[in-house]
Amino acid sequence: MRILCLHGFGMNPDIMKRQMSTIRKICDPSWEFHFLAGNIECSPAPGAEAMPGPYLCYTSTFDPASMRAAEALVHAEFEKEGPFDGVFGFSTGASILAAYLLGQRVAQPDKPLPVQFAIFCSAVPIIASDPTYYQAIYGSLSQEEERIIRSGQYDQYLKLPEPIQSAVTVIGNVTDMLKPVLRNSRLFFLDRSPLEIPCPLNPDLYTARLNIPTLHTRATREPPALKESSLAVESFCVPTLRRTFEHSVAHGLPKKLEEIQNMVAAMEEVIGSDRRARL
Q1: Model-level pTM?
Q2: By C-alpha distance, which of 58, 43, 51, 140 is closest to 92?
Q3: Among 90, 79, 77, which Cα is nearest to 120's?
Q4: Phi, psi dihedral angles at 93 (to 5 degrees)
Q5: Of 48, 130, 180, 215, which residue is most buried, by most CB within 10 angstroms?
Q6: Residues facing residue 3 across a β-bridge
Q7: Neighbours of 79 (CB within 10 A)
Q8: Are 202 and 167 a contacting pair, CB within 8 Å?
């Protein structure tokens, strides 16, 4: 059983291995976790400074070109080191994996996905890489609408039509919450030319779905913007095939032994449901 793992922003494979050390000890010894390093150096995530660098990410700007590059990095790893049975991602790593798999579903709708299950931990919004989707959301902004977005003022966003209002509000809320990680304010992401602004996928507008068993983990008291992000990722997964697990560590992996044991049990259930489906 081979599982491709992607770390969060400002981390690296060795840090993720440490975070997952108890998970890996408890889980089935036949599970092999393969870690893909980000290819962009960035500032360390809070708490990561105590561990050796380099500190890495898959994208630091979240514009469409950088998202396509991140997905291409994942695809190259499948080509070079695959096949993989499943994927495991944390935070931005989870969302990039979700974006990649959704892209595969759109590009090859009649073919099975390249993995049989996915585990998404504390996923942030799935950022679009498809220029057509960007054009549909941001491509016909008026000068006034562009000015409002660049202002970074939430009260002004209420003047924007949907789905633009929802898109920029999600980006503003999440980047505000993750400013200690990203080390940039919301204006860094919103004060741009329209087609360079990060564009979260909206499940009401983007119809592709992941038809494999999925596990979605998050904190019971996750900050609202991050909980909404995790729920949005769930929306792209078939309801009858997805499972949710909550724990006590905000935007992190569980640390209490009982919670780790319960998470591994949830992982086993998701992986087992895939195996049963293939019998």
Answers
A1: 0.95
A2: 58
A3: 90
A4: -60, -40
A5: 215
A6: 33, 86
A7: 10
A8: yes
pLDDT in tens, 50-107: 999 999 999 999 999 999 999 999 999 999 999 999 999 999 999 999 999 999 999 9
Phi, psi of 249 (to 5 degrees): -100, 110
Where do the domains of the chain lie, and which CATH numbers do they carry? 2-130+205-278 (3.40.50.1820), 131-196 (no CATH)
Buried b (16+ CB within 10 A) or exposed e, 166-189: bbbbbbbbbbebbeebbeeebebb
Distance CA 264, CA 267 (A): 5
Q: Cα separation of 273 and 251, whole Å?
A: 26
DSSP class of 39: S
Encoded tokens for 41? 């150096």
With the CA atoms of 171, 252, 30 and 34 taken in that order, what torsion angle do they form, in degrees rounded to the nearest 10? 50
Residues 149, 172: Cα–Cα separation, whole Å: 10
